[in-house]
Design brief:
heterodimer, A: alpha/beta, Rossmann fold, six-stranded parallel beta sheet, four-stranded mixed beta sheet, 5 helices, B: 497 residues, alpha/beta, 12 strands
Chain lengths: 214, 497
């Protein structure tokens, strides 16, 4: 008997008391929790997103699409970044005004090479206002998971209002489990020293979120 | 469990030692009180917390009541997405599987994300015996590993260490494992985190094999979820070529939608955050992004035995948030090491004796590591009635009875050395069955309470070595109710909570 069979047989013996003919539906799951906390306008939802991002030490910027290239050039320049890695599908015009080395990501790029790059600029899949979270799904303007992990400075552009949802349930409805997902709420942090939150451990220590309106 | 605690003292002895360690008590008190207040605020933000808690409980119950069904679906979905699924009936088998998988890569070192399951099975020790170095990468796990110490908290394994102790460990030990601590390292938490970042980065960048657990596995889609803060999880999950995840079979949830409940319950209950900094979700393998090979090791190791107990199985709902530790007056004073397993605190007191059985003196003493105050049940995000299970397990220790061990139904005998308690338990059962006796006994006890000793004489003395006898109230609840009808008759005891 394989261990698979052993474990499954143990499970079935352990559940002798459960009426199982009807299947899992015999155990009801009440879902009377809220789909979102509050009934806010799109503008208020974006405002809440900005507040919650800032509360967890992300740096938040508001910009119209036309001003994005200048803003990105300013942010990279201000930080003194010399190089920035970008996913293959990032709109080229976003970095048109930047005076830094732009490194397109490619599968053969090693973690060591990424470690030598100062910044990364990406889009996102969805942003969650109630929790101050941006979610990346490895789409064309987000790229492989590692490029938003190894460099120490991440700038993430959120398209407002269409990419912003209020709540976790609304975000999951929009996301596909077939894609690798990274949920990011503020910069890397730890509470491991006396349960006191400290920002900045292994992931990017600076997270800047640009809320871009058309 | 393979990590047996030979020579570990039973809970009362270990706790007595811990309570004399004033620094440990101060560290624990500071940390647990900090998180307690924050958690209450994070939970208070959600008007539907009670509904989320009820849903979380129900989803876990549905899963457990049909666990075979969901495990088979999970296996199918993970396999279809390019993963390989292995089954381990116990710790030794899980360790053998992981060792074999690491050896097959030709690597001699692995990076690890903090995982309760691998702590439970003693994976690091098993890998070390096979000549494989396992590097813990969570900050607190790193502190524990460098300090040759044991974890004492589910979420913050080094909670028993304060900042200056951590600085000393980093200064003296980091050099033996890789990059030494920076010159002149201070005990500022920011500097300590920076030292960990520098020390571990070289290991992340060269790692070829990552080992993780998982917080959730979605049966419907084959998706695994790891919730973390530092980014060490993301490093281990995405940079290596091979990923091995060791996960308890109870971590499965039925559907993708179910995550909407747990991703609200867990961060707020655990670190008191609206959302933890990083959550990774992956389904099998993805071309060009992350590990090329993914192995999932499904671990039983006593879980099916726990499932066989209709009262005790609710412990398997646990999502390892550690809120019950942070509110527990016993944990706060005794510390995590006294519990003698990977799972300290109230949840450990009901999980460990079920996963391992109550054959050892330590495991038999765990159900008594509680004052039954009920705070743990109040804060539990999946509503595990820990006091109910504690009482149930106490009865089993004292009375013996039917249990399942390693899949086999058996009858255990009453534990030795519990004769006095057995007598007490019998007396209680006798009294509760006979209201008249109980009433008379309570009145007698109340009238004579000034005469009651703080310690029991004779055979009861051992029991009161570590406990004060609870003072007897001047008036029993029964008599008070008879007299006042809960305040309707103007007792002056308004607003009894």
């Amino acid at each position: 008997m394989s261990s698979r069979d052993v474990v499954l047989a143990r499970v079935r013996r352990a559940l002798a008391d459960v009426p199982r003919a009807a299947g899992p539906e015999e155990a009801p799951v009440p879902r009377d929790y809220l789909r979102a906390h509050g009934d806010e306008s799109a503008a208020d939802t974006v405002r809440l997103l900005a507040e919650n991002l800032a509360d967890y030490r992300a740096v938040v910027h508001d910009i119209h699409a036309a001003g994005l290239p200048a803003l990105l050039a300013h942010l990279l320049g201000e930080r003194g970044s010399r190089s920035v890695v970008v996913p293959a599908g990032l709109p080229a015009e976003w970095l048109a005004k930047c005076d830094v080395e732009v490194v397109p990501d490619a599968p053969e790029r090693t973690p060591g090479e990424l470690d030598a790059i100062d910044s990364v600029v990406t889009g996102c899949a969805v942003a969650i206002a109630e929790t101050g979270t941006i979610v990346l799904d490895a789409g064309p303007d987000q790229g492989r998971r590692r490029i938003t992990l190894v460099p120490d400075h991440h700038i993430c552009v959120v398209r407002v209002p269409e990419q912003v949802v209020a709540s976790v349930p609304q975000a999951l409805e929009r996301l596909s489990p077939r894609r690798p997902l990274t949920w990011i709420s503020g910069p890397s942090a730890t509470s491991d020293i006396e349960l006191d939150r400290v920002e900045g451990v292994h992931g990017p220590r600076t997270l800047e979120v640009v809320l871009m309106t058309p | 469990m393979s990590v047996t605690d030979l020579g570990m003292p039973a809970f009362p002895a270990a706790a007595a030692r811990a309570t004399r360690d004033t620094r440990l008590r101060a560290n624990l008190r500071h940390a647990t009180h900090t998180i307690r207040d924050k958690r209450a605020r994070a939970v208070g933000e959600l008007a539907d917390w009670a509904e989320l808690r009820a849903a979380g409980r129900a989803i876990k119950d549905r899963t457990l009541r049909h666990l075979d069904h969901y495990l088979e679906r999970l296996e199918e979905a993970v396999t279809a997405a390019g993963g390989r699924v292995h089954w381990a009936a116990d710790a030794a088998e899980a360790n053998r599987i992981v060792t074999r998988l690491v050896r097959a890569t030709g690597e001699r070192e692995v990076v690890k994300v903090k995982s309760m399951a691998t702590q439970e099975i003693g994976l690091n020790e098993a890998l070390a015996e096979a000549g494989i170095s396992a590097y813990e990468t969570d900050l607190a796990e790193l502190i524990v590993q460098l300090g040759k110490d044991r974890p004492s908290h589910i979420l913050v394994p080094a909670i028993h260490r304060n900042r200056s102790e951590i600085r000393d460990i980093f200064r003296s030990e980091m050099g033996d494992w890789g990059r030494p601590a920076p010159e002149g390292l201070t005990d500022r938490p920011g500097d300590l985190a920076e030292a960990a970042r520098l020390h571990l980065r070289e290991k992340f960048l060269r790692a070829k094999v990552g080992i993780s657990g998982a917080n959730f596995m979605v049966a419907e889609t084959g998706t695994l979820v790891v919730v973390e803060s530092e980014g060490n999880g993301r490093m281990c999950l995405t940079l290596p070529e091979t990923l091995i995840s060791v996960v308890g079979i109870e971590k499965v949830v039925p559907t993708w939608q179910d995550l909407e409940v747990f991703l609200q319950l867990l961060p707020r209950s655990s670190t008191a955050e609206r959302m933890n900094p990083y959550t990774s979700m992956w389904t099998g393998t993805t071309d060009g992004d992350g590990p090329r090979t993914f192995h999932l090791v499904l671990l039983d190791n006593g879980r099916t035995d726990t499932l066989a107990d209709t009262v005790g199985r609710q412990a398997l709902r646990c999502i390892r948030c550690s809120a019950c530790l942070n509110v527990c007056p016993v944990y706060e004073r005794a510390g995590g090491h006294a519990y003698g397993s990977a799972y300290p605190g109230p949840i450990g007191a009901i999980l460990t004796p079920q996963l391992r059985g109550t054959a050892s003196e330590l495991d038999a003493s765990l159900p008594y590591a509680s004052s039954l105050c009920g705070a743990c049940y109040e804060v539990c995000p999946v509503a595990i009635d820990i006091p109910e299970v504690l009482v149930h397990l106490r009865e089993r220790v004292v009375e013996g009875g039917r249990v399942t061990r390693r899949g086999v139904r058996t009858v255990i005998r009453p534990a030795k050395g519990h004769a006095a308690e057995r007598a007490a338990m019998r007396a209680a059962a006798f009294a509760f069955d006979r209201p008249g006796v109980l009433r008379a006994g309570q009145r007698l006890a109340a009238r004579t309470r000034r005469l009651h000793p703080r310690r029991l004489p004779g055979p009861g003395r051992a029991w009161t070595d570590t406990r004060d006898l609870p003072p007897v109230e001047a008036e029993s609840f029964r008599d008070w109710w008879q007299r006042t009808r809960g305040g309707e008759r103007g007792s002056g005891q308004e607003g009894a909570k």
